[in-house]
């Protein structure tokens, strides 16, 4: 009797789990169901990033009234960037779920174009009068390996150090601070740690969970301030065993072993990016943060409005390792709108992209999301220039900025950079061991022929 | 009776001139075929939905497929490259070791022993006590894995319940998920899975005839002696089944660890399922990730075979 009951429970459990699996697999389908009357748009949305959602909702209304009979289906993916990439790649893998219009990070364009997820837009761009307004760097960002254009840039960005002037004053540091070397940054962090207890002296992203923000706002802001690159553009080979790589990891080791960064549970949290911009900085819990130009966009209006930011926060360019020319460094990326390769009506998808990025909408997005404008007519518009006092500073970094080596392998290599950084941050590897593990992984990804030893 | 059935099943016409023995063999084959016939839909379904994906995964693990880039569309067949790379990778061996520790401590020792302990306790306890304990333990099991994972994250996190209680008693707060990630997920898995073992053993214990115990008691056996000499041998089959189920279940635990520690900090709680996920979806190396998943599958099979051999469920 008892045994039979157990068997019954087990059978029920198995049936239930099978049923749930079945639901799980069917749940994903039905988005891009080949309906040529509906344009599906997939993009990212988080608690602190709603500006894109606003612009696309506006564009949806405009597009639908201009194209009677057509519908736009907005499908925001509510997750941090790293999970967004994974979900997007999985959606793109199947024709049934591949979206028609895709919000795409510039570093993923070549990779996704090579995978056949994106459709070239050259034909449609020829007939778009606004295309001449986009500057050349922005056009470069959408190029695939085959020289075709796979995306229209929505804006670009730069990165620098945000510092809290109030906390700096308490630590006895100048409020018009301008560090010249990495050591200057560390010295300031040590002063904050000593004189202002209870705050994070310096935030630099250092976790795998942080994804691309760890590579870009974190590691590469250091690496591109050393004398070694990640990738040799002339020989088209990736570098192994470079001093700059080890030194950058060494900076992380100093920050986290001396307690100058966030505590481990904060540093490894996947939502750290949102926490920094929406709570930790506004609450005065962070003295310095290496972060992107889009942060003030969240403080200007909306749920995370913080009117005092202009008096409180200062900006300093990220110095090079030892102050050598040009003295400071930055990284630039930016996002694009692309047309999916499986879109049944590519012209309709492109029409939506051009609506979303016409001058009016580009101005709305550029100002509200604190983007560095890529349309010349927006960049010179008085409404844009006067909107946000941080634009002038972050635009001034464009001459010293760098772009990531956007080969189709970059996203995998970037993931291994994150692994190396996290292992140093958590103290499970020394910088030398982590750099060695990165070199091995690099060879595994691109093959021995595509690497060279740093000189 | 049997003969008539045989005659009915026979496809050969009566009075056929065929020799007797081959005719009998033909009858056997026909009978087997007749018995297999109703099973064919089930076998076909198993083939399509079980063997098919496993075979496809095996094939996938022999390619260098990725999530994006050129090799997402045109993966190369690389033979056993993924496996040789796996076996020479420190991360894999570390992960395999963590998996072994996780399975041994949380399933084989934790869930299994604690489940047995609770089952014995409940059997002896007065009705209301056993009812309450049973409900509490089963409650943990009934919770969907993701809900349980959130609950345990809230319990162990730095601002969580455990630290709040510790501080109440004057202790200092500990970063459990950072300093002791493996211990935290082991305890979580024990908490979540013990109910299953408890129910299996509860049912098995109820089958042990009380007379045997009474006889042993009269002969002067103490409670421990009675448990190890009488109860345990008599529920041996249940132990074997339970060990196998619990081990295989724990080997596949993903959600719990992913929510609580995401395999971190660093790789300190990255078991094989997490490593497979990370390689496939974070580092976008789907082929290599599949190879890890395949190895996990084989580890599970080895465990199953060992249990069946060692704790051979004898018919009593």
UniProtKB/TrEMBL annotation, chain A:
Name of the molecule in the record: Extracellular solute-binding protein
SUPFAM superfamilies: Periplasmic binding protein-like II (SSF53850)
Signal sequence, start to end: 1-22
PROSITE patterns recorded: PROKAR_LIPOPROTEIN
InterPro entries in alphabetical order: Bact_solute-bd_prot1 (IPR050490), SBP (IPR006059)
Signal recorded as keyword: yes
Native organism: Quadrisphaera setariae
Classification via PANTHER family: ARABINOSE-BINDING PROTEIN-RELATED (PTHR43649), BLR3389 PROTEIN (PTHR43649:SF14)
Keywords: Signal
Listed Gene3D superfamilies: Periplasmic binding protein-like II
């Amino acid at each position: 009797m008892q045994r039979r009951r157990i068997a019954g429970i087990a059978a029920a459990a198995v049936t239930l789990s099978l049923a749930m699996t079945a639901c799980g697999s069917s749940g994903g389908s039905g988005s891009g169901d080949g309906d040529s009357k509906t344009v599906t748009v997939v993009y990212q949305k988080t608690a602190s990033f709603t500006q894109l959602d606003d612009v696309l909702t506006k564009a949806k209304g405009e597009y639908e009234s201009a194209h009677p009979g057509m519908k736009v289906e907005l499908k925001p993916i509510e997750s941090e960037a790293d999970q967004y990439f994974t979900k997007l790649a999985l959606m793109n893998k199947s024709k049934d779920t591949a979206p028609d219009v895709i919000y795409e990070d510039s570093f993923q364009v070549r990779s996704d174009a090579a995978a056949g997820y994106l459709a070239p837009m050259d034909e449609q761009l020829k007939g778009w009068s606004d295309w001449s307004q986009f500057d050349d760097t922005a056009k470069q960002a959408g190029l695939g390996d085959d020289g075709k254009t796979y995306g229209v840039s929505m804006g670009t960005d730069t990165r620098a150090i945000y510092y809290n002037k109030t906390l700096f004053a308490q630590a006895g540091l100048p409020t018009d601070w301008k560090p010249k070397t990495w050591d200057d940054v560390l010295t300031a962090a040590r002063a904050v740690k000593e004189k202002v207890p209870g705050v994070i002296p310096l935030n630099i992203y250092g976790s795998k969970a942080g994804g691309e923000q760890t590579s870009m706002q974190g590691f590469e802001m250091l690496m591109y301030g050393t004398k070694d690159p990640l990738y040799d553009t002339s020989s088209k080979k990736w570098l192994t065993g470079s001093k700059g790589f080890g030194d950058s990891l060494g900076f992380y080791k100093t920050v986290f072993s001396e307690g100058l960064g966030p505590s481990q549970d904060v540093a490894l949290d996947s939502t750290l990016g949102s926490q920094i911009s929406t709570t930790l900085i506004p609450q005065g819990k962070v003295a310095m943060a290496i972060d992107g130009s889009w942060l003030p966009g969240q403080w200007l209006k909306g749920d995370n409005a913080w009117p005092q930011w202009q008096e409180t926060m200062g900006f300093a360019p990220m110095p090079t390792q030892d102050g050598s020319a040009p003295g400071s460094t930055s990284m630039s990326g930016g996002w694009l709108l692309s047309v999916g390769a499986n879109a049944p009506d590519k012209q309709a998808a492109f029409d939506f992209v051009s609506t979303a990025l016409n001058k009016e909408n580009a101005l709305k997005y550029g100002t509200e999301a604190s983007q560095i404008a890529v349309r010349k007519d927006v960049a010179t518009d008085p409404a844009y220039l006067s909107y946000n006092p941080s634009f002038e500073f972050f635009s001034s970094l464009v001459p010293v900025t760098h772009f990531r080596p956007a080969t189709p392998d970059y996203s995998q290599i970037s993931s291994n950079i994150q692994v190396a950084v996290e292992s140093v941050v958590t103290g499970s590897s020394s910088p030398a061991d982590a750099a060695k593990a990165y070199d091995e992984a690099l060879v595994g990804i691109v093959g021995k022929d595509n690497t060279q030893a740093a000189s | 009776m049997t003969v008539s059935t045989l005659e009915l099943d026979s496809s050969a016409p009566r009075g056929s001139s065929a020799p007797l023995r081959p005719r009998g063999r033909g009858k056997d084959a026909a009978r087997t075929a007749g018995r297999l016939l109703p099973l064919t839909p089930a076998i076909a379904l198993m083939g399509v939905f079980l063997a098919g994906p496993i075979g496809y995964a095996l094939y996938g693990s022999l390619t260098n497929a990725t999530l994006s880039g050129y090799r997402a569309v045109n993966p190369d067949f690389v033979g056993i490259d993924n496996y040789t790379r796996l076996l020479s990778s420190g991360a894999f061996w570390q992960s395999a070791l963590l998996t072994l520790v996780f399975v041994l401590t949380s399933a084989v020792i934790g869930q299994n022993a604690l489940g047995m302990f609770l089952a014995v306790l409940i059997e002896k306890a007065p009705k209301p006590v056993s009812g309450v304990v049973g409900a509490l333990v089963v409650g943990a099991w009934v919770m969907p894995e993701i809900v349980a994972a959130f609950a345990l994250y809230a319990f162990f996190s730095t601002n969580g319940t455990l630290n709040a209680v510790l501080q109440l008693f004057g202790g200092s707060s500990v970063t459990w998920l950072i300093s002791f990630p493996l211990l935290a997920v082991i305890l979580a898995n024990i908490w979540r899975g013990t109910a299953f073992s408890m129910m299996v053993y509860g049912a098995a214990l109820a089958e042990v005839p009380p007379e045997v115990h009474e006889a042993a008691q009269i002969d002067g056996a103490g409670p421990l002696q009675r448990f190890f000499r009488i109860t345990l041998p008599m529920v041996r089959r249940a132990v074997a089944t339970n060990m196998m189920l619990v081990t295989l279940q724990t080997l596949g635990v993903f959600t719990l660890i992913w929510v609580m520690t995401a395999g971190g900090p660093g790789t300190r709680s990255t078991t094989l399922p997490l490593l497979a996920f990370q390689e496939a979806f974070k580092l976008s190396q789907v082929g290599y990730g599949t190879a890890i998943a395949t190895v996990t599958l084989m580890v599970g099979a080895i465990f199953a075979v060992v249990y069946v051999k060692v704790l051979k469920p004898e018919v009593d």
